[in-house]
């Protein structure tokens, strides 16, 4: 049976993640408060950040930046958009 969470990002009850997708306390907060749909949106946003900033997930500084952006994206609404980004319609 699918578990339901009240998604902090999308503001409604939606199917939650099947398992904790990120380690540590942040991962636990995401598992408990973020829907599977919002997680997929984050993955797209993260991919854009990696590509636009030419980040390497094996670089500790880049991982720290991505983790900070993840927390902002889900919980404080201040995730960075790449310079010059224009959303598509």
Short characterization:
With 89 residues, the protein is mainly α. The protein has helices spanning 24-33, 36-53, 60-76; strands at residues 4-6, 13-15.
List keywords for this structure.
3 helices; two-stranded antiparallel sheet; 89 residues; 2 strands; mainly alpha
How would you describe the overall organization of this protein?
This protein is mainly α and 89 residues long. The chain has a single domain (4-76), classed as Fe(II) trafficking protein YggX (YggX-like), CATH 1.10.3880. It is 51% helix and 7% strand. The chain has three helices and two strands, in the order ββααα. The chain has a two-stranded antiparallel ribbon. Helix 2 (36-53) crosses helix 3 (60-76). The protein is globular, with a radius of gyration of 14 Å. The N and C termini lie far apart (35 Å). The model has no long low-confidence stretch (mean pLDDT 91).
At the first level of CATH, the class is Mainly Alpha
Number of strands: 2
CATH homologous superfamily annotation: Fe(II) trafficking protein YggX
Please give the order of strands in the largest beta sheet.
Answer: 1-2
Looking at the chains present, what oligomeric state does this protein adopt? single chain
- Helix fraction by DSSP (H/I, runs of at least 4): 40-55%
CATH architecture: Orthogonal Bundle
H-E order: EEHHH
């Amino acid at each position: 049976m699918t578990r339901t969470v009240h998604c902090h990002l999308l503001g409604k009850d939606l199917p939650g993640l099947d398992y904790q997708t990120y380690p540590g306390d942040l991962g636990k907060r995401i598992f408990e408060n973020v829907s599977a749909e919002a997680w997929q949106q984050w993955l797209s946003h993260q991919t854009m950040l990696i590509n636009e900033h030419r980040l390497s997930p094996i670089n500790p500084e880049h991982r720290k930046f991505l983790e900070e952006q993840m927390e902002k994206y889900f919980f404080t609404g201040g995730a960075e958009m790449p310079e010059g980004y224009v959303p598509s319609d």
